[in-house]
Amino acid sequence: MLGSENLYRNRFCGPHRSLISCRAARLVRFTLGIMGGAVSAGEDNDDLIDNLKEAYYIRSDLVERAFRAIDRADYYLDEYRENAYKDLAWRHGNIHLSAPCIYSEVMEALDLHPRISFLNLGSGTGYLSTMVGLILGPFGVNHGIELHADVIEYAYQKLDSFIKTSDSFDKFEFCEPSFVVGNCLEIPPESRQYDRVYCGAGVQKDHEKYMKNLIKVGGILVMPLEEKLTKITRTGPNSWETKKIISVSFAPLILPKHTMNGKPKTVPLPKYEVRTLQELARFCIRHTLQMSGGGGESQSRSRGSSFSVGRGLAVAGLHKYGPRFKRRRVHRRRCNALVLATRQVVGSPASLYSNNDQGGSVEDEEAAGAREARRETRGSRRAARGARGLMEEEEMVEEEVEEEQEEEEERETGELLRVQPAVNVLRERILGLPLPEPLKRFLLYYRNK
Asked: Which terminus of the chain, N or C, has fewer Cβ atoms within 10 Å?
């Protein structure tokens, strides 16, 4: 498996992918029969996302920012956190998380954007629903249904922890998810339809039509169908387009068993609630503070706000979230001087050759000039290849030197080098407002940090 993984990543995930190579990459992933373990384990959440990007599972900036904003380990039980950054599924009792590569494909296939409605069938820990909420923005709809009541309680605990403790929360305009307990096959037929629907359990062919009817015209349904993660787009009242994404292995849907007075039990979905004036005021004030003054960085970060240009992400440049291990840096240097010098050496025989042929015919001189031009071109290409090889060798040496310097500094200080956490600009501005403390706490969502 490791050999196949490295072959796939090296051949199909370079910076200059062609259409053919992308199709070939998808074919490789399809034939691997992915359940997880498709990419290397990371040291932390950012490392895991880097690996998913390199393997072309995460392909859009929007999805990348959502993944980086939420630490996957926060949804694990404490005794299992060391496994959080492996590309593997995890289950403990009723609590379950799919592999990161699966969530990546799901997020990309859903084609999310602000102000749409989303339904998560088998919402589990709420990890996926929370990432989706970062993209939907405050005026979207984010609903989930989960079979187990204890998992719903766990999901709300994790959601509350994210809102109150994560610095990432203040960089987004968030659509908070709502969950209900029940079987997703017991949704009343008169329920409203959604723009996006995801099912986190294997769907039997008999229930395909039932699932299709949960989405609006123009909506997208992503679900495991017949061992393939499948994307279905509703193109009309009775027409759909189907696309197979990758091979997967999911536990099948649990069939309903309960009846009431001889009739099947129904599970009402969360209501479409109208925002209160107080909530709308909080959105507006926080958005205004994100957009106001503060120089280039804060302005560039607020251009992606859902209030201004319709994007759910309030931050344009989200790559790092809080303190983390210092990454190795590679300094690239140009070698133009070396290339030019080599060209000069290669070109000198051509000039000597042309001087010795002055007594020949014009045609001979032209032919000789053409031959020497071709030789010079080939020599320049060889020189360029040699320069690139020297650049790579130089980069490796510089990287090793930097690693040695970092290790030496770590030995001297006795601690790992860490990047200083970024200042939470929004929080600082709210705390600086001439407002009563209870109102400031409300604007901060009663956050602890």
From this structure: N
Does 354 participate in catalysis according to the annotation?
A: no
218: phi > 0 → left, psi -120 to 50 → alpha, else beta; which? left
Element (H, E) at 90: strand 90-92
Please report the pLDDT score of residue 424 as a whole number. 87
Average pLDDT estimate for 196-207? 95
311: left (phi over 0), alpha (psi -120 to 50) or beta: beta
Q: Is 334 helix (H, G, I), strand (E, B) or coil?
A: coil
CA distance 81 to 279: 35
CB 161 within 8 A of CB 126: no
Of 21, 40, 98, 306, catalytic: 98
What is d(CA 121, CA 181) in angstroms, rounded to the nearest whole number? 11
Are 112 and 134 in contact by the 8 Å Cβ rule? The answer is no
Pull the structure tokens for residue 147.
């079979």
Mean pLDDT score, 293-303: 42
Mean pLDDT (whole number) for 272-287:
91
The stretch 115-131 carries a mean pLDDT of 97
Average pLDDT over residues 146-172: 94
DSSP codes joined into one string, 48-72: HHHHHHHTTS--SHHHHHHHHHS-G
Place of tokens 């190579």: 21
Q: Please answer whether residues 168 and 133 qualify as being in contact, where contact means their C-beta atoms are separated by less than 8 angstroms.
A: no
Give the list of residues 6+ apart from residue 213 with CB closer than 8 angstroms, or none. 189, 193
